[in-house]
Amino acid sequence: MPEVRIKDHWREQRMFDRRALTVGALMALATLGLIARLILLQVVRHEYYSDLSQGNRVRTEPIPAARGLILDRNGEVVASNQPAYQLELVPEEVPNIRDTLTRLAALGLLRREEVDELRRTIAVSRSFDSVPIRLHMSDDDVARFAVRRFEFQGVDIKTRQTRWYPNGDLAVHALGYVGAISEEDLKHIDRAAYAGTALIGKLGVESTYEEQLHGKNGYREVLVNAQGRSVERQGAYQPILRTRAPSAGEDALLSIDLKLQRAAEGALAGHRGAVVALDPTNGDVLALVSLPGFDPNMFARGITSAEYGALANDIDRPLFNRALRGTYPSGSTIKPVLGLAALTDHAIAADTKVFCNAVYYLPGSAHVWRADKDEPRGWLDLPEAISRSSDVYFYRLASTLGIDRIASFLEPFGYGQPTGIDIGGEKPGLLPSPDWKRKAFKRPEDQTWFPGETVNIGIGQGYLLVTPLQLAHISGILAERGRGFHPRVVKGMRDADGHVSWLPAVADAPIKGVSAADWAVVIDAMVGTTHCTRYCGTAWVAFKGAAYEAAGKTGTAQVYTVAQNAKYNANTVAERLRDHAWFIAFAPADAPRIAVAVLVENAGFGSMSAAPVARKVLDAYLLDADGKLKPAPAAPAPVAPPIPAAPPAAAPSVTTAANHT
Amino acid sequence: MIYEELPYGSRTRRTLTGAARVLFALKIDGPLTVGLAIISVFGLIVLYSASGQSMPTVLRTVARLALGTVAMLLLARVNPNFLRRSTPWLYAAGVLLLLIVAAAGHTGLGATRWLNLGLFRFQPSELMKLAVPMVCAWYLQERPLPPSTVSLLAMAGLILLPVGLVAIEPDLGTAALIAVAGALVIVLAGLRLRVIFALLGLLAAGAWFGWSFMHDYQRKRVLTFLNPQTDPLGAGYHIIQSQIAIGSGGVFGKGWMNGSQAQLEFLPERSTDFVFAVVGEEFGLLGLLLLLSFYLFVAGRAIYLATQTQDTFARLLAGSIALTFFVYVLINAGMVTGLLPVVGVPLPLVSYGGSSVVTLLAGFGILMALYSRRKLVGS
What we know:
heterodimer, A: about 650 residues, alpha+beta, Beta-lactamase, 24 helices, about 35% helix, disordered C terminus, B: about 375 residues, mainly alpha, globular
C-alpha cells in the first residue's frame, strides 16, 4: 500500500521560509561577488581603465606650420605659400561614386584614366574623411565646377596651403623645390614633427634650410567617437582638450638678386649652360643659373609620372644642375692661375718672351700638340699669352712647372674641392696629380703619370674638371687677390617676429706667397683680354664700350662624351660634340664688386658665346638705368628687406565667391 | 483597526495616513512601490544620459512604465482565486502564441519574436515569464510537497515546452529566464537539496565536457548563438568597452552625461543591455552600490511578502517572482562586468525597450494581489 502523503501546510510554510532564506542568502553571496568584481574594476584597476578610456576618445590632430618664405636680397618674393583650391569628395555623402567621378571627368575636371585609381583610393578611405580627388584647380576649373555644384552631392572645393613659386623656373636650381614626402625622406626626418605636413624641401635652398623653413607644427586634441569621427562635443560631454599653436617657419633671405638672375637667364636663354655670379668681397651668390630649368610648381602641386618622365628623359636634362654638378674641363680659364704659379715660383718672368708657332712637341716625343687657327704666333710674353690665350706658351709653361708644382699651387684655389656653398649637391671637380692617378686607376700601366698629361693641364684639358660654381669662386679669388669666401645663397634667416639673424661670411684660407706685383701682372693680363690696345684680347669684341674695366678670361672645353640619357641622333649629337664655351670675369677690375663664370655647352669658342653673356650680367649688375656705373655701395651693412604682405588666408568657401562669377 | 487610532495627527501624519489608506484600498504594498519608483526614476535619469540626451527615448520609457503601472494596479486588485483558475488557460494561450510565432518564423519571415497586433507588437515570450511560474505553482498547489518524481517530470515538461519554443526563436536569454522562473518554483517547493546539487553537478559536468571538446571557432559560435546581436567579428568588443567604462568610472564616476565611453558611443548597447556600465562610468562605484541596494531592498521586500502569503500557490508564485527579479539583476550585472557570457538580459526597470518593463510590473502586481488577499487569521 503506497504511503498516502497528506499536505501539511505548517510544514510546507516552514520549508518555504527555509528555502526562501537559503536562496536569498545565495543571491546575497552572488551580490558580494559582484561587488568584489566592481571594486576590482573601479578601484584596483581604475587607472588602467582610465588610460584606455582616454586613448579611446582623444585623437591628436596636427596643425601644420606655415612654411617660411624665400625672399631675394631686395625683398622680392621667390617662394611663398598660397591657398590652392582642390576638389574633395566625402564618400558617405556621395550617392554613386562611380557615376559622380565619371560626370566630373565629362566636365573636364578629372582625367578619364584617373577614375579607376581614384575609386580605389576612395574605397580604402574612411567614409567620412574628405578625399582629395583633384589638386590645384585653376580659377577656370573652380568656376566650371561652381556652376554645376548642385549636381555633385558630397563633392566640394576645399583650400589648403601649398608652395608657390611666382617666378616659375627662375633660379630653380638655386631654390630647389618642395615635393611630396617620399619614403626615402621619411628615413631622415622626425615623423612626429612632420605629421600633417605634406611637402618637404627636395633640393637647393628648400632642402638645405628645410629645418628652419619648415617651422614647428602645432597640434590640436580632438574628441572622437567610436567611429573615429571627430565630434565637437557629444551630449553634455566636453573634456579639456589641449591645443598648441604652430610656430611658422623662418623666412630665408637670399643673397641672390632676382633682377640680376633674370638678366643672366635672359642672356643665356636658348642655350644649355650655367652662370654663377658672386660678390667676391663676401661670397654672396648674386645669380645662379643652370639652363634649361623646370617649373618647381609642378612638384609642389604633385607632379604626374608623365610630367616627370618627360623631364627626366629630356635630352637637354633640365633637372641637371649644371652650375653645381656639371663638371667640365676648365679650358683656358686656367691660364691666369698657371701664370700666377709660374711667376710665384720664378719659373718665368713677366716679360720673358717665348716663340710660339702653333705647334708644340715634348722633347724626345713624336706627339704633336697643335693649337687652333686663331693661335697667336711669334714672340709672346706672359700678359699677351694670357690675353690672347696662347696654347703653345702654356704647353711649355706647364711642362716647365711640372705637375707637382702645378697641383700644389692650384689646390688652394679650390680646384678639385667643393667650394663649401651652403646649398647641397655640389661636385668637387677633379684636380689630377700623379698621386691621384695612382689611387684612381686599378691597372698598374694606367697608374703612371705621363709628361704629356702635364702638357694638357697647361690649357685646362685632360683629367682636370671644374664646375661653373668653382670657376666663379676662383674668379672671385683672383678678383680679391687671393682672398676667397665660401659662396652662399642664403644671407640670413628671419623668424616669425621679424628678427633677422645674418649668417656670417665664411672666409677660405687665403692664398699665400703671391706678391702684389705678380697679382697685378695677371689681373692686368685679364683686363687685356677684354681690351684691344697693344694687341687685341680674345674677348675685346664682347666688351667694346664697357662703362667699367672688366678682367676676364675665355676658355674652350673639349667634349668627348655624349651626355647620359641621350638618344643617338646624328644632327643633335653633332651639335652636342661641339666644344663648351667658358668665360670668367670680374669687374670693376680695380675694386671688384662681382665675379662671374659663364658656361655655354656646345657653343664653340668662349669669346663668341660665353663672353657676351658675361658682359650682359656685369652690365645688369654694375650699371644704372642710364648705362652709367653705379657708385660703389658705401658700407655694405646688410639691411633686411621689407616684409611682403602676408599671403591671403585660405578662403573658407570658394564656391560662394565663384558663384558671383 | 489600526488607522482609526490616529484621528488627530500632525498634517504630515494625516497625509501619510491618507496615503496608506489609498494604498490599502488599491491593494498596493507601500515599501515595494516606493522601491520600484526609486529605481524607475533613477533609471530614467540614467537613460536620458545613456541615450545621448534623447527625450523621446525617455518619454517612450515613461509611457511603458505607465502601462506597466496600470497593469500592476489592475493585477493587484484581481482576486488570487481568479488568477489560480485562469492559470491553465493563460499558459495554454501562451504556448499557442509561441507556436504561431514559430510557424511565422518557418514560413520564411525570418527569425522573429513578435506578434503584430496592429496597435502594438506583442512578445509572447514575455507572457511566458509569468505564465510558467504560475502554471508550476498551480500544478503543485494541491500536491504534497516536496514534489514527487512524477510531479517533477510533469513540471519539467511544462517548463521545457515554452522554453524550447522561445529558444528556437532564437532568444536564449529569455528562454533561460523563463526556465529560471519555473525552476525557482520547484526549488521553493522543497525539491530535495541532493537532487538540486546532483542536477547542477550534471549540468556543469556536461557543459564543461562539451566545452572542452569544442574548437575555438565552435566556442565562438556558441557564444554568438547565445547572443545573436553580438557582431561575430567583434567578439569581446562589447565586454572590453563595458569594462573600460566601468573601470574608468572609479569610485565617484565621471558625472552625469560625462561618461566618454557612453557619450561617444564606444559602449555598445549603452541604453539597453549595457546600461549598467553607464551607471558605473558616470556615477562610479558609489552609484552602482546605491542601485544594487535599491534592487536588494525591492527583492528583499518581495521575498518578505511572499513568506507572508498563506497558501501554496501564492507562496510559490510570489517567491518565484521576487527571486526572478533579482536573478535578472545578477545576470545582467554579471555579463556587463565580464563575469558571465554576454546573453541578452536587460537590467530591470533601467534598460530601455521591450515589453519587459510591463511584464515585470505586472508580476509585482500579481505578487501584491497574492499578499493583500491573505486571510488575516490570527493577526
